[in-house]
Amino acid sequence: MTSDAWQEIARFGRKVVSSGLTSSRFGNISICQDGRIFITATGSMLDELDSSMVVEVSLENPCEMDKIASIETCVHRAIYLNTGKMAIIHTHSPYAVVLSMVEMEKVEPIDSEGVLFLGEVPIIEGKLGTDMLAEAASLALKSHMTCIARGHGVFAAGGTLMEAYTAACMVEHSSLVRYLANCYPQGKNLYLNQHTFKSSG
Ligand SMILES: [Zn+2]
Q: Residue 3's pLDDT band (boundaries 50, 70, 90)?
């Protein structure tokens, strides 16, 4: 493995944990480089990664190394093969997960940055590590920066890990803002009632 691949993944592993996007044991990170995928190993702690905890797997097909790679490797592979993205961060961000369980098909940001840069966030179905989840995530990320697997977590993708990280931060921030606005007492939400925000009921 090229040394910069695991070091770059380790750098963002520390960032996603320290920023509260996921706890150390949950989530995974990968980059696509030179026709290969470098991805965190199953069970690795994202804020303590070393070169042994980042695994190289085939881009094209499942391979022997998939057994020690993240259980979500098939999802990452499908995203790379179908979207042209080059980096993926998967987190179990709490507010995004909550909204995926109370909203129907998508989470719509109401904060100005989320509206402008993130756009709507599709909620997708499929149990972890399944072909169904892989297909749904790769379809959603063709036209969106992020999606949320219902009751599970966020997949954020970009041309670089920095782009994916920014998108992961934005979806959690927008989810937090939407959640808190939704908590405001019924009938008191004077501005939002007349503008963009509509409660999912
Ligand atoms: Zn997960």
A: low
